[in-house]
Specification:
Layout lengths: L8 H13 L1 H12 L8 E6 L4 E6 L2 E2 L1 H13 L3 E6 L8 E4 H17 L7 E4 L5 H13 L2 E4 L6 H10 L4 E5 L2 E3 L2 E3 L1 H9 L7 E5 L13 E3 H7 L9 E2 L3 E7 L7 E6 L1 H14 L7 E4 L6 H13 L3 E5 L10 H9 L3 E4 L1 H8 L4 H4 L8 E5 L5 H11 L6 E4 L33 E4 L11 E7 L9 E2 L3 H8 L7 E9 L5 E6 L3 E4 L2 E4 H9 L4 E11 L3 E10 L5 H18 L8 E5 L12 H8 L16 H8 L4
Parallel strand pairs: 4-17, 6-7, 6-8, 7-14, 8-11, 11-12, 16-17, 16-18, 18-19, 19-20, 29-30
Antiparallel strand pairs: 1-2, 3-13, 4-5, 9-10, 14-15, 15-23, 21-22, 22-24, 24-25, 26-27, 28-29
Helix pairs in contact: 1-2, 3-4, 3-10, 4-5, 4-8, 6-7, 9-10, 12-14, 16-17
Bound molecules: 5'-O-[(S)-ethoxy(hydroxy)phosphoryl]adenosine.
5'-O-[(S)-ethoxy(hydroxy)phosphoryl]adenosine binds next to helix 10, strand 19, strand 20, strand 24 and strand 25.
Length: 636
């Protein structure tokens, strides 16, 4: 019997129990039945969380693009693989069939080879949401190069840090991008970044907005003429199961972003299997995930998961507000989208607008609605359920992380009864554990603690690029033999999970993970600033927004404050990107610190959230007097 498509709740429990009792048999069956392998594995799993070392399907040989493209050609060559919906609704959508995708990926792969890119080399991709983004990702995978996609909203400094951290040889970018009414000079950002990146000798440029850009002789080339001259056949590089497929950066509570490394076979198996079940994908469905491929959601659930299933995946260049707030629903109607996957922050933003923007369109094609990236609040859940799903499409609230590679906790639509704000049940193969403050695992139901996973799953990140020690310390040191997620969660009476949010200093703003340290470092570069601390506070649309407490070297007038505030946000935009700008900045004379000099963020968080009723004992602080001063001047 195939485990591939779970159809009712009893079957889920049966499959789940098997996945825990006999994980190797379970994952072996899935791998056997649904993929093409050049060589079978010798061993399904070996693992040791104390090192940590995890290997899935060791000894197997494959190429993920054969699974995502080649094997669909015989039966589904003329089916649309990628359905590109441009920023401008007047520009025609493109239906890229599997046949055409095969040719375009191979041509791109041949161009990469002709430019000297080899197996194992790192290639940075800094592109807007256009077909070339998915194609260049797949082209890297075709030849065994490791792609490192950087979200095209990041600044030149952030881009340079990421390029250098993984020693990328090449950058793939475009002459610019469209974003609603605006155009953005991506190539200019790349040029700026590359002043700091001596290792990059080659830049391929996709023409998107026809802007007049500088091309640096000997380094920059337009990609189209190279593609036109390239062969449409490119033998896939045969990869080992554990060869790295990609690096993707995510923020940590401290330090620089972490380059999470995902490997080939396990990632493929897990993203494909979860995609099929969690979105209930059927062969003629049109699936749309609105994320950007620059994030893990786009890697796993726009590119690899859907294509491994031979699905039609929509790639949307635009924004939800352009040309008006009805755009998402217009696209759903136009392409008869069946599965729609978005983030709570988008739902909240759209819920603020007139209902007319939703009601105008025929949304009857929808069968499954997804949510990802942060906890979905009850109000947003109901708005989504009532107005988009018309109470007819189950909402799958999917909890997972860049580090987990694929969805970990989520309902199966039409299988798992849903409750607003609950991600519900662990996916087969996932063994969550909730930990108490003494480091003990909480047994039974109706408990709340820190969320860990106590058994490996195929798509977990294997390391942090260039820093295995940090990988171990961040994820495997808080609790023995467990992967620690950084999130808190509760398990209710029936065993459903509800994610309560981050328990570390990562703040999720509009679904984007932001670490406090790089933002504080950026602020501290302002010549007038001596110290700063960032916390999150609840925000109607963004979920959380950033509140900055800043100590100036010399106390200033309010006019000075205003200017410094503007400059601080300017510096943050340059160092990280506009997503990390502060909503509120308060100038303070000191920050509450413990006697060992650690900033008490818990207190700052409460003050920023206007929740000062229970600040706890502040008398043990080094400087308790600043707390009253901060409360008095808090920015409402
Ligand atoms: C949060 C995104 C509650 C969580 C795929 C996690 C969620 C972090 C949910 C990872 C959800 C993601 N409910 N919280 N359904 N999904 N999160 O790496 O705090 O960008 O640790 O991966 O987002 O964010 P990342």
């Amino acid at each position: 019997m195939s485990n591939y498509h779970i159809k009712h709740l009893e079957e889920y429990y049966k499959v789940y129990r098997k996945s825990v009792r006999e994980p190797e048999v379970f994952w072996e069956e899935i791998a056997e039945e649904h993929f093409v392998w050049r060589k079978r594995w010798d061993k399904v799993l070996s693992w040791d969380f104390s090192k940590p070392e995890v290997k899935w399907y060791e000894g197997a040989k494959l190429n993920i693009t054969e699974n995502c493209i080649d094997r669909h050609l015989r039966t589904n060559g003329n089916k649309t693989a990628i359905l590109f919906e441009p920023n401008n609704p007047d520009e025609e959508a493109q239906h890229i069939t599997y046949n055409r995708l095969y040719e375009r990926v191979n041509q791109f792969a041949n161009v990469l080879k002709s430019q000297g890119i080899q197996k194992g080399d790192r290639v940075c991709i800094y592109l807007p949401m256009i077909p070339e983004l998915a194609i260049s990702v797949l082209a890297c995978a075709r030849i065994g190069a490791i792609h490192s996609v950087v979200f095209a909203g990041f600044s030149s400094t952030a881009l340079a840090t990421r390029i250098n951290d993984s020693d990328c040889k090449m950058v793939i970018t475009s002459d610019g991008s469209y974003r609603g009414k605006k155009t953005i000079d991506l190539k200019g950002i790349v040029d700026e970044a590359l002043y700091e990146c001596p290792g990059v000798s080659n830049v391929l440029v996709v023409k998107r907005i026809n802007s007049d850009i500088d091309m640096k002789e000997g380094r920059d080339q337009w990609v189209q003429p190279l593609l036109d001259a390239a062969s449409k056949e490119c033998e896939p590089e045969i990869m080992n199961a554990e060869d790295p497929l990609f690096i993707l950066y995510t923020s940590g509570s401290t330090g620089q972003p972490k380059g999470m490394v995902h490997t080939t076979a396990g990632y493929m198996v897990y993203t494909a299997y979860t995609f099929k079940n969690i979105f209930n994908y059927r062969s003629n469905d049109v699936y749309w995930c609105t994320a950007d491929i620059g994030w893990i959601t786009g890697h796993s659930y726009i590119v690899y998961g859907p294509l491994a299933n031979g699905a039609t995946t929509v790639l949307f260049e635009g924004v939800p507000s352009y040309p008006d707030y009805g755009r998402f629903w217009e696209v759903v109607e136009k392409h008869k989208v069946n599965q729609f996957y978005t983030a709570p922050t988008a739902i909240r933003a759209l819920a603020k607008e007139k209902l007319e923007f939703v009601n105008k369109y025929d949304l009857t094609s929808l069968k499954v609605l997804g949510s990802v990236g942060e906890p979905i609040n009850e109000e947003a859940w109901h708005w989504y359920n009532d107005n988009v799903g018309k109470k007819n499409s189950p909402i799958v609230d999917t909890w997972w992380q860049t580090e987990t590679g694929g969805i970990m906790v989520a309902p199966l639509p039409y299988v798992t009864p849903t409750i607003p704000t609950y991600a519900t049940l662990p996916f087969p193969g996932i063994q969550p554990a909730l930990m108490d403050e003494n480091g003990e695992e909480l047994q039974g139901n109706q408990v709340e603690g820190r969320l860990c996973v106590k058994f490996p799953w195929p798509s977990m990140a294997r390391t942090i690029w260039g820093n295995h020690q940090r990988y171990k310390e961040t994820y495997f040191s808080a609790y023995e033999q467990k992967y620690f997620t950084g999130d808190g969660a509760l398990r209710d009476a029936v065993g459903y999970y509800r994610i309560t949010g981050r328990v570390d200093d990562v703040i999720i703003v509009s679904g984007h993970n932001l670490g406090t340290a790089p933002i504080e470092d950026a602020i501290n570069e302002h010549p007038a600033v001596s110290e700063s601390a960032i916390v999150g506070f609840p925000h109607d649309i963004k979920g959380n927004a950033l509140y900055g407490y800043v100590i100036l070297k010399e106390t200033g007038e309010s006019r000075v404050h205003e200017n410094v505030s503007k400059e601080i946000n300017q510096i943050i935009t340059e160092h990280i990107g506009p997503i990390a700008k502060l909503d509120k900045i308060q100038f303070v004379s000191g920050l509450p610190k413990t006697r060992s000099g650690k900033i008490m963020r818990r207190i700052l968080r409460k003050i920023a959230s206007n929740d000062t009723s229970n600040l706890g004992d502040t008398s043990t602080l080094l400087n308790p007097e600043v707390v009253d001063e901060i409360i008095e001047n808090v920015i409402k």
